[in-house]
Amino acid sequence: MHNTFAMKFGLDRGRRHMFHGHGHRNHHCQEMGSVVLSGVDAGSSVRVVCLFGGQDAKRKLLDMGLVPGELLKVVQNDSDGPLLLQVQGSRLMIGRGLADKIRVAAA
């Protein structure tokens, strides 16, 4: 990740490790027992741990409020459709492709 991305979103050095470029493994997330959001059952409350993907995907996730540390509830997760999430009192729907770029852990 480029330092300019971290600086743009006001991330301190301690949080920069939570954002990884496309194809980069994040062993820190895996050690914390995190899973991809698309694998979480409906009704579960989780906390965002890490975001993966290119800058466009990460920017889109950040704009939707899906930032590391954020608490969210999975309202609907059918096996083949988009996910319905509750974030900060609002509901939003994201596709499975974006959900696969978010690692979460139990809240």
Describe this protein's structure.
The chain has 107 residues and is α+β, with helices and mostly antiparallel strands. The protein has a single domain (3-106), classed as SH3 type barrels (Roll), CATH 2.30.30.90. The chain is 22% helix and 29% strand. The chain contains 4 helices and 6 strands. The chain has helices at 3-8, 27-31, 55-63, 96-99, and strands at 35-36, 45-51, 71-77, 83-87, 90-94, 102-106. Strands 1-6-2-3-4-5 form a 6-stranded antiparallel β-sheet. Strand 4 and strand 5 (90-94) form a beta hairpin. The longest helix has 9 residues, at 55-63. The relative contact order is 0.22. It holds the Pfam family FeoA. One of its GO terms (molecular function) is transition metal ion binding. This is FeoA family protein. InterPro entries: Fe-transptr_FeoA-like (IPR007167), FeoA-like (IPR053184), FeoA_core_dom (IPR038157), Transcriptional_repressor_C (IPR008988).
Summary, kept brief:
This protein has 107 residues and is an alpha+beta fold. It contains four helices and six strands; from the N terminus they run H-H-E-E-H-E-E-E-H-E.
How do the strands and helices of this protein lay out in sequence?
Layout: H1 3-8, H2 27-31, E1 35-36, E2 45-51, H3 55-63, E3 71-77, E4 83-87, E5 90-94, H4 96-99, E6 102-106
The CATH H-level superfamily is: Ferrous iron transport protein A (FeoA)
Helix-strand sequence: HHEEHEEEHE
The largest β sheet comes out as: 6 strands, antiparallel
Number of helices: 4
Question: What is Rg?
Answer: 13 Å
Whole-number count of domains: 1
In the sheet with the most strands, the strands line up as 1-6-2-3-4-5
Percent range of helical residues: 10-25%
Low-confidence stretches: 1-27
**Any idea of the CATH class?**
Mainly Beta
**N-to-C span:** 27 Å
Strand portion: 25-35%
Structural class: alpha+beta
What is the overall shape? Answer: globular
What is the overall pLDDT average? 79
Subunit organisation of the chains: single chain
> Any guess at the CATH architecture?
Roll
Tell me the CATH topology.
SH3 type barrels
- The number of distinct β-strands equals 6
Organism: Sediminispirochaeta smaragdinae (strain DSM 11293 / JCM 15392 / SEBR 4228)
InterPro entries: Fe-transptr_FeoA-like (IPR007167), FeoA-like (IPR053184), FeoA_core_dom (IPR038157), Transcriptional_repressor_C (IPR008988)
Protein name: FeoA family protein
Domain Ferrous iron transporter FeoA-like: 35-106
